[in-house]
Amino acid sequence: MTGSKFGRSLGLLGVVLCVFALPTRAQAPPNSVPVKTYTGYYNDTAVYFTAFEANDINFATVNGVVYAPRLSQFNSASLPRMIFFLNGGGRQTVALETQPGQPNYNPLWRVLTATWRSADPMPLITNFQAALDQNAQGHLSIDDTGIIFNGPVIRINRPLDLSTIGDLAPTISPNEFLGINPSIRTAYFKAEPGYYAGQTVTFLALEHAPGVIQFAPGAIPVPTITVNALGANGFANFYAVDGQALPVIDSIPSRQYVVAPGTPTYPPGTVYGVDINGQPTYPPTSTGSTYASYSPLWLVSRVTFNTPATAGVPRPLLTSVQQIQQAAAAGQVTISAGGPGDTFNCPVPYYYSTGATTPAGGTPVYTPPGSTGGTTGGTTGGTPGGGGVYVPPAY
After folding, report:
1. Taking the model in full, what pTM does it have?
2. 3-class secondary structure, 7
3. Could you say which DSSP state residue 131 is in?
4. I want to staple 147 with a disulfide (CB 3.0 to 4.6 A). Which of 111, 230, 236, 299 is the partner?
5. What is the pLDDT of residue 311?
6. How far apart are CA 183 and CA 165, in angstroms?
7. 282 within 8 A of 272, measured Cβ to Cβ
């Protein structure tokens, strides 16, 4: 077996599940993507979570995550909730309704904001139910922002004093997690290769639904990310080509950048993006936008060749959805659509430009949520969906 695990048949079963010793600290392991970690609270314990995409452009901009409006097409009523405290202070960070291993866990979250209203000092809230109780007593106001946020929890069972890094989340395969350096709050994940539009991309293979859990040895499936649970419209398309090392995806995120006033004529400071060729992209209502198609959750379909491989005659390399569709139209391949459970959480952290050996814009280290103001444990200011939400303390 070589290349991406998704170059194999979707019907492959009987993979040996193994758990091996993981480094607790790592300095950029080979073939890894560094990802910033953040602390959250679940049932009076601490967890590490990460941050990748959001469906709200203001939240994405303030918190340094990818703007992915397609997340809005998921069934938000089925999602667990994460509370961001707007004026908590001290060691107050987000409170999570669930965590990996619980039946309602989902890496996608509905973002709630909470503001302390009582004249009494706010206690440290480390339990979601405790926040609801404070709300019922009139001490804490809680609002649903309508924001959907991809924030996978990667480690659980940390003590509240944060003296240990806890355990790897059971929903993350130890084959994909390469280590963590708590001193710089950075985790390392395996860089999985693939193709988009004829160019090389890198993706992360995080939570898997039951239909593709065989590709995540050592992890438990997450049924809440299936098509049946979330609805079909929010998924992007991922193609596993039989006999081909690398899969093909149909979209990538746009890198954000601030448009200077008058170039083009949009409001100063507005954040849009650039496409794979470095050309500006515009809001999802604009013609030619690339924003609308990308989603971190993917439906995996299988591409099979209709004739047996011939010794010494290489099959065509399929590196784009267009090539796959052309091959299907010519009768060379068959595309078998994925079933409702053939889904997984697959953020695309960066892509490579043609002929380049490093990612466009340099190899990034994800640093969300980031701050545009305020102090650690404070508020960034603004209103939900309108310029910022509370930034969790960096610990």
Report:
1. 0.80
2. helix
3. H
4. 111
5. 66
6. 11
7. yes
Q: Which two tokens stand for residue 281?
A: 């992209």
Q: Return the structure tokens found at 329.
A: 């139209």
Per residue in 64-104, pLDDT tens?
788 889 999 999 999 999 999 988 888 899 999 999 999 99
What is the chain's length? 395
- Per the listing, tokens 């290769």 go with 193
| DSSP single-letter state for residue 179 | E
Cα–Cα dist 105/167, whole Å: 16
CA distance 67 to 54: 5
What is the Cα–Cα distance from 254 to 77, expressed in whole angstroms?
27
Greater confidence (341 vs 14) lies with 341
Inform me whether the pLDDT recorded for 263 exceeds 60: no
Residue 178: CA count within 13 A, CB half-sphere:
18
Largest CA distance in the chain: 79
What's 202's DSSP letter? E
Tokens standing for residue 231: 């609805």
Sign of CA dihedral 250, 215, 149, 203: negative
pLDDT, one tens digit per residue, over 127-171 is 999 999 999 999 999 999 999 999 999 999 999 999 999 999 999
At 285, list the tokens: 């209502």
Which amino acid belongs to residue 278?
G
Token digits of residue 109:
């979250």
Per-residue DSSP letter, 62? H
346-356 burial, b if ≥16 CB within 10 A, otherwise e?
Answer: bbbbbbbeeee
